[in-house]
UniProtKB/TrEMBL annotation:
Similarity-based family: Belongs to the NAGSA dehydrogenase family. Type 1 subfamily.
Role: Catalyzes the NADPH-dependent reduction of N-acetyl-5-glutamyl phosphate to yield N-acetyl-L-glutamate 5-semialdehyde.
Keyword Cell cycle: no
Localization annotation: Cytoplasm
Pathway given in the UniProt record: Amino-acid biosynthesis; L-arginine biosynthesis; N(2)-acetyl-L-ornithine from L-glutamate: step 3/4
Protein name: N-acetyl-gamma-glutamyl-phosphate reductase
Transmembrane segments: none
Single GO molecular function: NAD binding
Record-annotated Semialdehyde dehydrogenase NAD-binding domain positions: 3-141
Active site: C149
Swiss-Prot/TrEMBL GO biological process terms: L-arginine biosynthetic process
Length: 343
């Protein structure tokens, strides 16, 4: 069995890790941390876990976490980098769901996250945990930087087009919608029901911290720096990311459907929908799946890609477990065979 520790067990991605790992045949969750709920039984806090765990929240502590084979950080940025150096030194594997190790250019990270990075050497050794791109490097990794939710949906949608140099890489547009759970469980006025239901708004148009992360991934795929306009929106749903992606084809012609099907034919968690389909976020709710459709409206030179995920699953906890499975040589789909919830 793989002994698991989770730092940040009271947040939305932390409890999602617990939900998914409850069904994982090869995992034993040994440590779950919370500073605010120390001593509370996890099932008293999250009744969906009753009967699945006999665990109490404890405060984060490197010595206790060192007994684990792998530690997931489901914490705000800045937390993983404060504990990672010691854990890495003690041979523990780390999967960070936050942003501490995602951006290779540490100065750029500091600019967007407004924090000094305390372990740039670990940024260098970290592998960006998008299995559809980095599966081989993930196998040998000690430290995984899990992609953000918007970056996962957006990169998976653009990859086949950029890798094959089919689009103008200088003018990409990602028009993305998120459910409110993307903002985390911490109380804030902006996340209140009266503020979010029956309304929708864009935010971060002038610059969102996922912009440099998405640009990094897309530039790697294109093998040149890309130009990207990224506009996130908050929508009145709990879970889900819907990315509508636009680009201009260099040589407009048929074959995009086949291109996407070929790119993802061996990917267990990317589902290219039949031509003409419009994927719905509810079809991936609770599932580690990205559903994608590709269109060339009116046979013109614009390509439109629709890409949907559950922000808490393929956008966070599910993808983190997918990475763990690959790192430990398990079946990649182990513990992740949930289907989406309809309705
Ligand atoms: N929500 C989402 O859809 C996604 C989130 N992410 C990223 O995953 C991470 C977690 O997100 P989410 O679950 O939404 O966040 P939440 O705000 O819901 O939860 C944060 C968790 O971290 C713990 N925590 C906060 N500060 C510290 C600290 N200084 N030291 C130790 N533990 C701390 C909190 O518990 P306590 O304060 O009791 O210790 C809590 O359990 C973030 O980096 C987020 O950006 C990534 C993809 C999607
Ligand atoms: C709706 C909402 O507020 N979403 C969050 C992003 C989600 C997230 O978790 O950010 P990381 O993936 O970088 O950790 C935001 O826009 O800040």
């Amino acid at each position: 069995m793989i002994n698991v520790g989770i730092v940040g067990g009271t947040g939305y991605t932390g409890v999602e890790l617990l939900r998914l790992l409850a069904n994982h045949p090869d995992v034993d969750v040994k440590v779950i941390t919370s500073r605010s709920e120390e001593g509370i039984h996890v099932a008293d806090m999250f009744p969906n876990l009753r009967g699945h765990y006999d665990l109490r929240f404890s405060v984060p502590d490197v010595d206790t976490l060192s007994d684990c084979d792998v530690v997931f950080f489901a914490t705000p940025h800045g937390v993983a980098m404060s504990m990672a150096p010691e854990l890495v030194e003690r041979g523990v594997r780390i999967i960070d769901l936050g942003a501490d190790f995602r951006i290779k250019d540490v100065e750029l990270w500091t600019q967007w996250y407004k924090l000094e990075h305390t372990c740039p050497d670990l940024v260098e050794m970290a592998v960006y945990g998008l299995p559809e791109v980095n599966r081989e490097q993930i196998k040998g990794a000690q430290l995984i930087a899990c992609p953000g939710c918007y970056p996962t949906a957006t990169q998976l949608g653009f990859l086949p087009l950029l890798e094959n140099k089919l689009i103008d890489h200088r003018r990409l547009i990602a028009d993305c919608k998120s459910g409110v759970s993307g903002a985390g469980r911490g109380a804030s006025v902006g996340a209140l029901m009266c503020e979010t239901s029956e309304s929708m708004k864009a935010y971060g148009v002038a610059g969102h911290r996922h912009l440099p992360e998405i640009r990094q991934g897309l530039s790697n795929a294109a093998q040149r720096p890309v130009g990207l306009t990224f506009v996130p929106h908050l929508t009145p749903m709990i879970r889900g990311i819907h990315s509508t992606l636009y680009a201009t084809l260099k040589d407009p012609k048929d074959g995009l459907q086949a291109l996407f099907e070929e790119r993802y034919k061996d990917e267990p968690f990317v589902d290219v929908m039949p031509a003409g389909s419009h994927p719905e976020t509810r079809s991936v709710k609770g599932a580690n799946t990205c559903r994608i459709s590709v269109f060339r409206p009116q046979n013109d030179d614009t390509v439109v890609v629709l890409s949907v995920i559950d922000n808490l699953v393929k956008g966070a906890a599910g993808q983190a477990i997918q990475n763990m499975n690959i790192m430990f040589g398990l079946k990649e789909t182990s513990g992740l065979s949930f289907v989406g919830l309809m309705p």
